[in-house]
Every structure is written in C-alpha cells, then in structure tokens.
Amino acid sequence: MTKQNEKKLDHEWIALILEAKKTGLTVEQVRDFLHYADDTKRSRKRTASYLYAK
Fold first, then answer.
1. Domain count, the chain
2. Angstrom distance (rounded) from CA 19 to CA 53
3. 3 state SS of 10
4. Which end of the chain has less Cβ packing within 10 Å, N or C?
5. How far is the C-alpha of 40 from the C-alpha of 48, rounded, in Å?
6. Which domain holds residue 9?
7. CA distances from 19 to 5, 36, 38, 49 (A)
8. Which secondary structure element, helix H or strand E, spans residue 38, and what is its range?
9. Do 35 and 45 touch, CB atoms closer than 8 A?
C-alpha cells in the first residue's frame, strides 16, 4: 500500500476491523456480515418503496 492510499483509509473502519480481528472473527465472517447488512438495507428499501407506492 502506498502512502497516498494509506492517507485515504478511514481510521474508524481500521479500528473496527482490528477489533473484529482481536475478537477472533475471520475475514470471511466480517465480509459475510457486511454483505448481509447491505442486502438487508436494500431489502428494507425495496419493501418501503413498495408499501409507500400504493
């Protein structure tokens, strides 16, 4: 990673990932959680737009 890219990293995300690593979560578990959260968010938006469209 270059110094320029390093400056662009979000320090809160780094702290979050390091904490997940400390607790023993694997990269796959973190990735699965993020995908699940993203899918859930999209699903809620679709449901809301369906309900309010009527």
1. 1
2. 41
3. coil
4. C
5. 12
6. 3-53
7. 22, 19, 20, 36
8. helix 27-53
9. no
Is the entire prediction scored with pTM above 0.90? no
Between CA 26 and CA 28 the distance in angstroms is: 5
Per-residue pLDDT tens digits for 7-46: 677 888 889 899 999 999 998 998 888 888 887 877 777 7
Encoded tokens for 36 = 């699940």
Q: Which residues, at least 6 apart from 30, have a Cβ–Cβ distance to it below 8 Å?
A: 17, 20
Half-sphere exposure of 35 (CA within 13 A, CB side): 6
CA angle 36, 33, 22 (to 5 degrees): 175
